[in-house]
């Protein structure tokens, strides 16, 4: 069977179930393509031979009732995988091999999938372009020297470049939706508490969520169904009734009220993005949805709030990487010297910057002015959404303020880099689900995404809206396989 | 509350100084597993054998609160007559140290689980109420071992993550003696509740001691110094005495006190500076985002309240009312839960015709002496409460005399034998048959005619001689009361 790697997850599952193709054949195809795609630099750790072994084993005794029967999947290297190196894109965990498995990845293996490898990402998920990874930047399959976005850039490129049929990323401020938008794929950030954080290298605990990334909405729904489970090992996991998202998926969104927040029309927004948004509004109308203008008054405070809360939590979460117990250790004269050298050499510049910011905003004398104030604003941002959801069922915005940019273009300008997250960050602060779907191209032919934000635990609704709009948009990714010689 | 007459004051020239002391007691929660992980808390295991991935802070590991520890903290709060906060928050206290794997300690900063309460101290000259500021739950750190290797420090994480209750008193204590009574009372309450074993040797109970001094009668508090991590009552008292005198000397010399953290050197019996206020850590406390605020319902608290056993203060009151004990006796019996249990078991086993007074005397006298000489706890007593009750009943019903009882008691120590059996086997039963005793006395009077005549002529001292002879002749078993009666009649 040709073009296996071009098939969507749903097609692959169907073909495996109909015994048209074996897990081994599929896995071989993805391994072959991955091996030919080294230039994209999406893999930190390859797990090809083990994947092939597991695929063979699956074929010997195939359980076709599973949701991901024998499907090879590569995952972001932020998920701890038992006996397989897990680096979080950092030198400080370069040699770290967990003895345990994250709940989210375990859920995937429980449904029959096999691990292809661990995907590149920004160091500790801190970045919007995948340029902060210790393992080098990732190439966007859309064009040479184009960033794939971040932090789940390796994951986005792997799906867009057809090196894995689906993948999982994590999203703290936009790390699934922004790279999905930059690479022309679908990415869902679930409601906070939907997917367990157990075994995921922490960046900012109150914001981090794992989520699916896929070629289309249906695949995304299926993967969400697999990874979202209540987990008593994560105290912030929420026990709510989870849908069978893929089974309950419908394109009938007639009468759904979709809000358009005026505050998202930011200064200096490129006309292309304006136009894309308008196009999205029209598609939603075509699907029978009702468009309602809404206001989210505290939107402009979301980014500064995020860049206080996230670094504050990160500065504490990353304190455990001290060279004492595991990971990289530099030689030092004494304990303090060892700490300083380990952390100076082990962490990259962006991670150090955020640790510094976080330490600063939590220090005595500044706590009230920064951290405490940010927590109060965070409440206001949540309230904005609560108010809006009295009038609408979902909210439609662009995913990002621009299309993907060139590698190196914003590397030395952290503030302009942070602006990438302007439309995605409020969703994390409010703990809501948001999905990015590809919706058009800019003048250079680079993909642009639209974001649909839902009520808490209302993943089904935004998946349905995305599914209906996807049909109307009929997006085609302009990939050329330029990296394959 | 009466004023403490035996005031602890430090005199210098014309000035008299009062010492103001507040304690932060760290009490290890009695629990099978740690505060946020399922590792065992058992003391004395091989290093690093009771360490989970959470305790060692592996990437992606998350804390999950141990409900039992929450219950223990609430119970302790109830025992301290304190307000239980239905909503409390776990915060991260951030600092780097090799035995702190997370790089932060999970503690409670702004919103502790238990608020204000109090403890009643029984001082020699009356009761004193000491205020409790708060009680909060926190994780213990691991242990750094510096003396095993000249170059390296070893770290044992068995203790890492074990639940501690930090109990903060108000600055209400005024003397080393009060501190001693306070610690013992806290320990007693927690042992009654089963929330902390109070074992200071194993580090289950230790304290940071805040000391300041002021001219007697002054209302303002002086600048305090905190003496860190003192692990015995004796050392606390020594440290306070040293520190208070040091501060008084500084003031008398016209110097001021620097607020600082100090360490007590048990070998040199002195405190010395560890770090000044300027060097104090900035712990960057903030709510732990891995844990939601801890919320408990009235129902949850009331259920725990209904499970609270009788505590020392109530037990003392009951002992005084029910058994007519003196406050002093009651205090001795209730201060340790095992002593109270032992006493109550003796009382129960004595049955209907019981002699409480005799029981108290035997427990606080003979039994305590044996425990002291063997250096053991009453829970390890070689004589069971049941057998002691039997012994006391044997005295009470005249089967043996008090003197013989002491002999029987000695025999009971080895092997916890039934005193009844000892009396039978050794033939120690008191001779109370009047006819037999009369015959015995007749013979003695006959053999000592001259002395009998002297007695009759008024030499009354000789009565004791006849009693002694009768006891001797009976091998010490004669009922002394009967001997007296018969002798009076016959002489």
Write structural notes for this entry.
The complex is a heterodimer of chains A (485) and B (491). By secondary structure, chain A is α/β, with parallel strands linked by helices. Chain A has 15 helices and eleven strands. Chain A has helices at residues 9-17, 23-35, 48-60, 103-110, 153-160, 177-183, 217-227, 271-286, 302-317, 335-346, 349-362, 368-388, 414-418, 425-430, 459-473; strands at 43-46, 72-76, 114-119, 166-171, 186-189, 209-214, 257-261, 290-294, 394-398, 434-441, 447-454. In chain A, strands 4-6-5-10-11-9-7-8 form an eight-stranded mixed beta sheet, with helices on both faces. In chain A, 59% of the residues are buried. Chain B has 15 helices and 16 strands. Classes of the chains: A alpha/beta (485), B alpha+beta (491). The A-B interface holds A 80, 86, 88, 93, 96, 98-100, 102, 197-202, 204-206, 232-236, 312-313, 315-316, 318-320, 322, 324-326, 335-336, 339, 359, 362-364, 367, 371 and B 53, 56-65, 92, 94, 96, 98, 101-104, 153, 155, 282, 284-286, 289-292.
């Amino acid at each position: 069977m040709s073009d296996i790697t071009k098939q969507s997850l749903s097609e692959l599952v169907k073909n495996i179930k109909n015994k048209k193709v074996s897990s081994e054949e599929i896995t071989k195809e993805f391994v072959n393509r991955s091996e030919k795609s080294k230039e994209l630099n999406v893999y930190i750790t390859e797990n090809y031979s083990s994947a092939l072994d597991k695929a063979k084993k699956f074929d010997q005794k195939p359980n076709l009732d599973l949701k991901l029967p024998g499907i090879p999947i590569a995952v972001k290297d932020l998920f701890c995988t038992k006996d397989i190196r897990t680096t979080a894109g950092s030198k400080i965990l370069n040699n770290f091999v967990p003895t345990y498995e994250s709940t989210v990845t375990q859920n995937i293996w429980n449904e029959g999938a096999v691990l292809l490898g661990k995907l590149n990402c920004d160091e500790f998920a801190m970045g919007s372009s995948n340029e902060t990874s210790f393992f080098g930047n990732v190439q966007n399959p859309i064009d040479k020297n184009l960033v794939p976005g971040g932090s789940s850039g390796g994951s986005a490129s792997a799906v867009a470049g057809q090196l894995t049929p689906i993948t999982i990323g994590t999203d703290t401020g936009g790390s699934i939706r922004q790279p999905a938008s930059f690479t022309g794929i679908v990415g869902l950030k679930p409601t906070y508490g939907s997917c367990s954080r157990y075994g995921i290298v922490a960046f900012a605990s109150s914001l981090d969520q794992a989520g699916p990334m896929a070629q289309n909405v249906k695949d995304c729904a299926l993967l969400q169904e697999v990874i979202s489970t209540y987990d008593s090992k994560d105290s912030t996991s929420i026990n709510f009734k989870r849908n069978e998202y893929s089974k309950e998926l419908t394109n009938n969104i007639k009468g759904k009220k979709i809000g358009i927040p005026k505050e998202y029309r930011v200064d200096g927004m490129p006309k292309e993005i304006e136009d894309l948004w308008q196009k999205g509004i029209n598609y939603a109308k075509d699907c029978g949805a009702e468009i309602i203008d809404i206001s989210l008054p505290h939107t402009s405070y979301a980014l500064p709030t995020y860049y206080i809360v996230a670094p504050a939590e990160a500065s504490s979460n990353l304190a455990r990487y001290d060279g004492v117990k595991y990971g990289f250790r530099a030689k030092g004269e004494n304990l303090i010297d060892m700490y300083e050298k380990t952390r100076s050499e082990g962490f990259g510049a962006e991670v150090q910057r955020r640790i510094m910011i976080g330490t600063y905003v939590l220090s005595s004398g500044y706590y009230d002015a920064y951290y405490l104030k940010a927590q109060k604003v965070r409440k206001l941002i949540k309230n904005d959404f609560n108010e809006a959801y009295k009038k609408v069922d979902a909210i439609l915005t662009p995913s990002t303020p621009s299309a993907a940019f060139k590698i190196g273009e914003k590397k030395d300008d952290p503030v302009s880099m942070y602006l990438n997250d302007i439309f995605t960050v409020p969703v994390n602060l409010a703990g809501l689900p948001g999905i990015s779907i590809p919706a058009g191209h800019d003048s250079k032919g680079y993909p642009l995404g639209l974001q649909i934000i839902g009520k808490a635990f209302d993943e089904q609704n935004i998946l349905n809206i995305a599914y209906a709009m996807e049909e109307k948009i009929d997006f085609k990714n302009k990939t050329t396989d330029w990296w394959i010689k | 509350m009466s004023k403490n007459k035996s005031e602890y004051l430090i005199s210098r020239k014309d000035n008299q100084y009062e010492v103001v002391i507040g304690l932060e007691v760290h009490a290890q929660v009695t629990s099978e597993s740690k505060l946020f992980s399922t590792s065992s808390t058992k003391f004395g295991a091989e290093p690093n054998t009771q360490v989970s991935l959470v305790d060692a802070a592996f990437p992606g590991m998350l804390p999950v609160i141990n409900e039992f520890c929450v219950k223990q903290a609430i119970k302790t709060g109830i025992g301290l007559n304190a307000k239980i906060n239905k909503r409390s928050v776990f915060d991260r206290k951030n600092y780097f140290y090799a035995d702190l794997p997370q790089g932060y300690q999970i503690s409670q900063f702004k919103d502790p689980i238990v608020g204000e309460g109090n403890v009643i101290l029984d001082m020699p000259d009356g009761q004193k109420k000491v205020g409790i500021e708060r009680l909060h739950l926190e994780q213990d750190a691991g242990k750094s071992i510096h003396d095993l290797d000249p170059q390296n420090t070893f770290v044992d994480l068995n203790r890492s993550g074990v639940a501690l209750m930090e109990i903060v008193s108000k600055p209400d204590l005024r003397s080393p003696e009060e501190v001693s009574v306070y610690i013992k009372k806290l320990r007693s309450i927690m042992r009654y509740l089963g929330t902390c074993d109070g074992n200071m040797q194993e580090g289950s109970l230790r304290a940071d001691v805040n000391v300041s001094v002021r001219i007697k009668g002054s209302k303002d508090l002086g600048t305090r110094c905190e003496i860190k991590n003192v692990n015995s009552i004796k050392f606390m008292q020594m440290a306070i005495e040293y520190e208070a005198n040091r501060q008084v000397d500084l003031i008398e010399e016209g110097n001021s006190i620097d607020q600082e953290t100090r360490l007590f050197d048990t070998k040199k019996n002195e405190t010395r500076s560890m770090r000044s206020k300027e060097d104090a850590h900035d712990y960057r406390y903030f709510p732990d985002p891995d844990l939601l605020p801890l919320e408990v319902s009235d129902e949850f608290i009331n259920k725990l309240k209904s499970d609270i056993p009788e505590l020392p203060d109530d037990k003392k009151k009951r002992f005084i009312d029910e058994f007519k004990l003196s406050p002093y006796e009651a205090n001795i019996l209730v201060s340790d839960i095992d002593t109270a249990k032992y006493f109550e078991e003796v009382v129960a086993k004595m049955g209907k015709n019981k002699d409480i007074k005799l029981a108290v005397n035997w427990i606080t006298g003979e039994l305590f002496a044996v425990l002291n000489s063997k250096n053991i706890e009453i829970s390890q007593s070689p004589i069971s409460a049941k057998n002691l009750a039997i012994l006391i009943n044997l005295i009470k019903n005249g089967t043996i005399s008090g003197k013989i009882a002491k002999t029987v008691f000695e025999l009971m120590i080895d092997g916890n034998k039934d005193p009844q059996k000892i009396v039978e086997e050794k033939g120690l039963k008191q001779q109370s048959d009047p006819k037999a005793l009369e015959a015995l006395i007749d013979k003695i009077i006959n053999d000592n005619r001259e002395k009998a005549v002297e007695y009759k002529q008024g030499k009354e001292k000789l009565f004791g001689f006849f009693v002694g002879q009768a006891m001797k002749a009976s091998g010490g078993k004669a009922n002394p009361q009967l001997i007296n009666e018969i002798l009076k009649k016959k002489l």
